[in-house]
Amino acid sequence: MQSQGNKKSFQTNRILHMILVVWLGVWGWLAIAPHSRGDWVLENLLTWAALLGLIATYRVFIFSNLTYGLLASFLLLHSVGAHFSYNGTWFDPWLRSIFGSERDHFDRLVHLSFGLLCAYPIYEALRGWTTLGRRWIYVMTCVIVLAMGAFYELIEMWVAMIVAPEIGTLFVGAQGDPWDAQHDMELALYGAIIAMCVTAFGKRRRVEDNL
Questions:
Q1: Of the residues 8, 9, 96, 188, which has the fewest C-beta atoms closer than 10 A?
Q2: Could you tell me how far CA 153 lies from the centroid of its own chain?
Q3: How far is CA 159 from CA 45, 83, 112, in A?
């Protein structure tokens, strides 16, 4: 089964080649001298798992270039956070001035971006792999984003308690906020809702333009 938006093979898909080259270049640069090499490895497990999943399923289901671009953008944001261990990135001084807080907000930006940038790829996968109606796909996309956000918080807890207790606090990145996990899931959900509203509006406009 292939996405209707992109049926080009990998060899002929120049846009996908460009996305890969840009992503690999930036990721390779960010892999140099991270804040904490141990935390960098743990944070990049998500990136490597996502890439392996996309490679393994490429022959079965080809996403649109829009989806690959959105996923690459999210993984790059996550790579920036991994380089700094989500601790004082280039963006944090600007974010602190906006929110009037001493907290580093880049991790919250990444969680919001997870919903904004990954909701459409999930929507596209549900359209290709299920027989759900469009309205239910919108709903289930948001539910899946929320579930994945919650599962990631569980992964952080397991890593902090079992795998690497010596850097657990750094990996979790709660920064003293007792509601950190809930805020992270909340922002991912908001991002998914916004993405699905934009998607629904775009689909409606496309239908109206074709009338």
A1: 9
A2: 14
A3: 12, 18, 22
Q: What are phi and psi of 88, to 5 degrees?
A: 75, 60
Q: In sequence order, which residues have a C-beta less than 8 Å from that of residue 83 and are 6 or more positions away?
A: 30, 31, 34, 35, 40, 89
Contacts of 156 (CB under 8 A, 6+ apart): 171, 172, 181
> What would the two tokens of residue 100 be?
């009037």
The residues near 172 (Cβ < 8 Å, ≥ 6 apart) are 156, 157, 160, 180
Using 50, 70 and 90 to split pLDDT, how confident is the model at 3? very low
pLDDT tens per residue, range 50-79:
999 998 888 888 999 999 999 999 999 999
pTM strictly above 0.85: no
* SS3 call for 172: helix
Amino acid type, 71:
L
Report the Cα 43 to chain-centroid distance in Å.
13
- Would the pLDDT of 179 be above 90? no
